[in-house]
Design a protein that fits this description.
263 residues; Metallo-beta-lactamase, Chain A; 8 helices; globular
């Protein structure tokens, strides 16, 4: 759960509460959705969620579930050591916290010791420097234990065979979107916090956490235009309902789009 006002930035509460109802603490429900990809001799994880290292006070503050990426992988029958690669859109704790977990010693250690972790060079450098609108979102116990596993990327490139990344700056300077084609040849895109939920399709519905709000707005408009024209399948990282959506042109607002759940 995160504060609804922070999640909708400059949008007045009477408007965003038409879309989602907050609890008594003004928090709205969210998820930390991840993707597991297999093929070509690789087992790839896109995003890792919050992890399991937070104390009870912090868990209560965010109403965290007693479940993390390691539990999700166990449910899918995948051992952490089988993960060959992890691709993160950015390194905030709700996306990269699961890169590490508390080991038997009580210290943070790598959750996926055999994996290469792919992130933009700018994002890695900003994370280490803690360049953020929030003081406690780039946390060293998510980052330091995996230093030797980091592979930094620069700009749009093929991160892995069949998996492409493109910079989507705005939420952070180094945020990247992850693109791949499924077995049907359908382009799938994981855009990170460019569009965290189905309610964030409007260009002005941005988060107070964005370091570059105007750039984020422009990126979103360009992204949704391409997504609609090329019929991408989009997976939203924080959507608490169905996170798999498509972008559709809004017939009542030329140049604007809305997100329609798939399935």
């Amino acid at each position: 759960m995160l504060d609804g006002g922070a999640m909708f930035g400059i949008v007045p509460k009477p408007l965003w509460t038409r879309l989602v109802t907050p609890d008594e603490k003004n928090r709205i429900p969210m998820q930390t959705n991840c993707l597991l990809l297999t093929g070509g001799g690789r087992t790839v994880l896109i995003e890792t969620g919050i992890g399991n290292k937070f104390n009870e006070k912090m868990r209560g503050l965010y109403a965290m579930e007693d479940r993390c990426i390691l539990d999700a992988l166990a449910e899918a029958g995948v051992e952490p050591g089988a993960i060959t690669d992890v691709v993160v859109t950015h390194l905030h704790f709700d996306h990269a916290g699961g890169l590490t977990h508390l080991g038997a010693s009580g210290e943070a250690e790598s959750s996926f010791p055999n994996a290469t972790i792919h992130t933009q060079k700018t994002e890695w450098e900003d994370a280490l420097a803690n360049k953020s609108t929030m003081h406690s979102t780039y946390l060293r116990n998510h980052l330091d234990p995996v230093r030797g596993q980091i592979r930094t990327l620069e700009g749009a490139t093929e991160a892995l065979p069949g998996i492409r990344v493109e910079p989507l700056p705005g939420h952070t300077w180094g945020q990247q979107g992850v693109f791949f084609d499924d077995e049907r040849g359908q382009t799938m895109v994981f855009p990170g916090d460019l569009i965290p939920t189905v309610h964030h399709a409007s260009p002005t519905y941005g988060m107070a956490y964005d370091v570059l709000p105007y750039e984020s707005m422009l990126q979103k408009e360009r992204f949704l235009g391409r997504a609609a024209a090329e019929q991408w399948t989009i997976v939203l990282d924080h959507e608490a309902g169905n996170p798999v959506v498509r972008a559709c042109v809004n017939p009542e607002k030329p140049g604007r789009h809305f997100l329609e759940p798939i399935g």
